[in-house]
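B., you asked whether I could sanity-check this one before it goes into the benchmark set. Here's the sequence:
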Amino acid sequence: MGLDCWGTMSLGRLGKSPVRVPRFRWCASLLLTGFLVVACQGGGQSDERLTRFIDEVMFWGYFDNHVPQRGRVAKWTADLSVSVEGHDAGRYLSRIEAQLERFSEWTGLGATITDTASSPSLKIILMADDDFLVNREHVSCYASVYTKADRIVAAEVHISLAEEEEFDHCLSHELMHAFGLRYHSGIVQSTLNPAHREAYPTLWDELALQVLYDARLSLSTNRVEAGSIIQDIVREHMAGS
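And here's what the prediction gave me:
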């Protein structure tokens, strides 16, 4: 069986409209003018709202052109070797390491930066370019994810360094995609919420990753089967918080 490429998830620059892409591709424009976004600020969220948020970022996304019934759970099943490449990589290394440590904590996976791996599972590529042309749109960053039988086997995150203030947000947003949360949601404050440009993953992003990598949510589980499992895990986490 060959690899499936989930294609390109791109973070649109200011003033850009949403990108419409073919089937099997992810569109990730963060500036979606013309849409009414219901965004929750701050603290407490209901179990139902959080369950819906995770359903959207995992399976379909309110802002993404996708049929939710076709969604299946996809994630990494082994530790990641990570390379940081490209323009001025050393300057950003500590910030990338800090983010990867958080993602490792939330997913239970190792994510180690190395310059010795011949084929790193995750590549983070920094470019001096002003932006990238992806699907005929100019974007600040994007990610490509490759799967085999719904297991993520490789991913690349590309980030433009043209705007320093966007770096942490781009990194957070694209790592969320690279770890298996394909889509977007306007339900809660999140780095995957088009109404916000969160520099770092929020508590709700952390919860979404913990749910995705919970052992009860196995590879290839479809959206219908996953519903009650996600709900149970969310309730457990909220009860313990």
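One thing to flag: The beta strands are 4-12, 80-86, 111-113, 122-127, 132-134, 137-148, 151-160. Otherwise nothing jumped out at me.
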